[in-house]
């Protein structure tokens, strides 16, 4: 892993999160390169992480053992076909983090036989607390799967799936998931302000509480449901609040929201796979 050269195609939010986590894990800045058309993104990445950047995708991909495709799904066809000369059977590993776009379509654009791992990471990778689902196509060697896993494990938890369709469920739960929790923190912050706290105080309390609850849920042998019960005194304040959330349909809403996210991943796959 320490000797792997990793080339990112696209230097936006997800790439930045992965790069930050990899650097924090001790990967040498010389082993990471980014291609992005935006001069501002390139300058910011070099300033923050000391990595080299280019505007030329092929120049970056040609020097990399692992090429991370981190552009928007809608751009993946164009970007992948542009790298076809550097792909193919027995060639370097491609690692796509794009939501929805199927491995078979990416392989067709890069060239049949290309070793490809599809990953669904999330932005907490930046602070090495990411969660990533992985799926490898039939062309990947054991060594390449290990390389993909080592990159993502450096920035958090990894989980292989045996059916590619499960990546869409992972997208809905943990890929998009940080946004759900950030939205809940925003809501709690706003609620705290309404209840008379200073905005900054309310934010700090909301964020620290989310962190504490997540840390506890991760470290405790007990399930989140048990931890919830321990906060909820019979006839107390939490019980009253949870009744309101349940009456408002919280669980149905979460089911509907994640189903919508998964459906969107499928729509993207169908739409973009036509190319
Ligand atoms: N953000 C997230 O939480 C997650 C994102 N993903 C996936 O990661 C991928 C990237 O998402 P995200 O980082 O959020 O998106 P961003 O738009 O932040 O990043 C994409 C980057 O690619 C650049 N770019 C545009 N065209 C090209 C090109 N032809 N060649 C190289 N780079 C190009 C963009 O530049 P410009 O802005 O100038 O267009 C931008 O800097 C998506 O496929 C998404 O599904 C997966 C999991 C989580
Ligand atoms: O919103 C999106 O489509 C991407 C994929 C998962 C998180 N962000």
Automatic annotation (TrEMBL):
Residues 164-268 form the Pyrroline-5-carboxylate reductase dimerisation domain. The lineage of its organism: Bacteria, Pseudomonadati, Pseudomonadota, Gammaproteobacteria, Thiohalospirales. NADP(+) binds at residues 9-14, 70-73. One of its GO terms (molecular function) is pyrroline-5-carboxylate reductase activity. This is Pyrroline-5-carboxylate reductase. Keywords: Amino-acid biosynthesis, Cytoplasm, NADP, Oxidoreductase, Proline biosynthesis. The keyword Oxidoreductase applies. It catalyses: L-proline + NAD(+) = (S)-1-pyrroline-5-carboxylate + NADH + 2 H(+); L-proline + NADP(+) = (S)-1-pyrroline-5-carboxylate + NADPH + 2 H(+). GO terms for cellular component: cytoplasm. Pathway: Amino-acid biosynthesis; L-proline biosynthesis; L-proline from L-glutamate 5-semialdehyde: step 1/1.
